[in-house]
Amino acid sequence: MAAHLDTIVEREAAGLDQFVASYRPLPGIFDEMIDGDGRVRAHWRPFLSMLAGLGAEEINRRFAAADRYLRGSGVFYRVYEDAAGSERPWPLSHVPLIIEPAEWKQYATGLIQRAELLEAILADAYGPAWLSRDGRLPAALIAGNPEFLRPLVGVPPPGGAHLRFYAVDIGRGADGRWWVLADRAQAPSGAGYAIENRLALSRAIPDIYRTTRVERVAPFFQALQAELHALSRQDDAHICLLTPGAMNETYFEHAYLARYLGLLLVEGEDLCVRDDGVFIRTVSGLQRTEVLLRRIDADFADPLELNAASRLGAPGLLQAVRDGKIVIINALGAGLVEARAMLAFLPALAPIVLGADLAVPNVATWWLGRDDMREEMIEKLDRMVIASAFESPTDGRSASEVLPAKLDDAQHQALIASIRDRGVDYVAQEAVTLSSMPVWRDGRLQPRPFTLRLFLAKVGERWQVMPGGFVRIAENADARAVSLQRGAATADAWVLARGPVAETTLLPTAERIQVQRATGLLPSRAADNLFWVGRYVERAEATLRLVRAMINRAAEADETAAPVIAGIGLLLEAWDAVPAETGGAMAAFIARAALSRADLPGSLPYLAGAARSAASVIRDRFSPDAWRAINDLATMIAMPFALGPPESVIIERVEASLRIISSLSGLAQENMTQLAGWRFLELGRRIERAILTGRLVHCFAQADGPEGSLEVLLELADSQITYRQRYVMVAARAPVIDLVMLDPNNPRSVAFQLDRIETHLSALPGRNGTGRLSPVQQIAASIATRLRTVEAAAIDEALVIDVEQSLMKLSDAITATYLTNNERSESAWEALA
To answer: Would you say 156 and 323 are in contact if contact means Cβ atoms under 8 Å apart?
Structure first.
């Protein structure tokens, strides 16, 4: 039996050796997997043995499954350097970083010490300032830092701590020691992505994940969640995650972390400050919040007292902090300790403040604000990295880092002159050579440099470290910096446990899920954008139908169609879909302008882009299919026209776009949960369709209109078949008006839209407790009643215009009652009579 076991062990060892045989770390680089003698490190062997046992084909299959999971979950990041701000699939590197328990405990303790030191520095900088007074920390390092917020000097942070969620980037040097590369105290990112990396990998290789005994990260987030709730004093107060919005590179993480922790995702527009606290604008009225987990930089938090150009924060937020009405995590001004220059002083401050040296040192840094230090570093310039003293590193994207050794003579001298002129703005840092870890490339393991971001949360009076982290891996084997913006990948970090690991998760399991049918509060901003997605898409559909009607009649070469074509052209011009003064132009020219002029607010490119822009702000409220349809519409409209006869090319573009809009409408009706958000999307569609139908009646149902006008109206209202079934005759004015204005069973009629509008309004929160109709409902009921009591033959131009203006009044009332105070220009849409 013993001999048999020995044979199995030998076979596994031989398979492992073959699996890593081609793995070659760069000379002089510390490698996480292979030691200096070329052997696999002991804590990596179980994982690698199981991975090798799968075989290359099965490994590729499983890693592809992880990528599919991430795509299906909608995980992405945004590339700022791309002019279009492109969204890229999440770049997961499927081999985790393996960390042994003893080493983890050692530097986790050291990072807790570091968090305590930074908290003490912040408390001093915004309090007694004795570190500066005693010469321990240069005053210029505090006062000259743009992250130092003077309005908060002397203001104790509500909740009692400046730092509550802190991250630190670390890397391992050639000597095997871990070094701190940067502190993240402003609004640390990456924790949500770390959760997704863990979920994707644990689903791809569940057997290996369970057998390896990896510490779970869920208890860390449970503790953070409990702390957030403990900081909220009133039971009815909501806890929010404050995001800069959908265009931020890590917006997906903001939305995901908010869902994972049970927080309400809000933007600055969603918040308003009153004397008695901070409130969220929702369609149900103002709702109190007392805790904000912020993901915006402090300078943007309050345009009244900080950056006046900011639209990301809420006016009055600083006063709410001074009044103790809101706990912000991390406190505004905490970014002060992120400055690179601070790294030069932390080693000396630790014994003074904490009574002990730093257990985990940071990369060697020298602040060049002192004359003697400046000249000393200039002598060693070619061996250093020169960087901004106050600008914090931004994931490798900072343009302020300079390698003097790579500069030509003129650039070298210019840098020296700049340092001598403004040395206070610079630091010199030791050049970092990062250690490497394995990645799976081309069917084998290869070494790549990496950095590790770790997360700490203050729970009560103690700090907890998340047992795992967010690994960023460089694309090139000899890279000195790692950035997702420049092609890096990410990986999970597995901290090995000494014994069995409890199955803990914040994600609901089947037996823990409680039945519920609501999805929480709907911020007014989200409702506003849903409302306008509906309106923009409806406008786009109406314009497409006009273009199609024009081209179809132009293709008939019928002289009697000329007045109708001219009328459509004038309508498109009035809607700002085509340039002014196009009268007399060929139909194909006018149609092509409507489909291509992105500078005109009624054109298809403008409307499709506006719909996508509004939807992108609330992307987490759309299914992947619905978002894809919205994106496909904008992409379709923006494509260059194909070669061929202009009429056929235009019709092909119009038909393809209409099919996308039809699919989007079907997705909204059949796939979207019919709660408040859906109702605002529907209200936008119904109001816009009613307004547009009224305008079509006004233009094409005049008593003395040209021949064929009524047929155009039926086509635009998609009502030809119904009309023929009812009347089997040429179009007559009264029956046509009845069908497109008054028929409650025609999904395109104005009356049908009013019926749906009244239904949706009755389901929304009311604004009075008298039992009477709300003001918004009264407007809708008045319009609907007028249409229900009028005969088709009595409908004239004045009535149509009055109904249209009443619908615009209804839109304004909905905005004032439920939505944000955004002013959206109606331009020519409102001016049309």
So the answer is: no
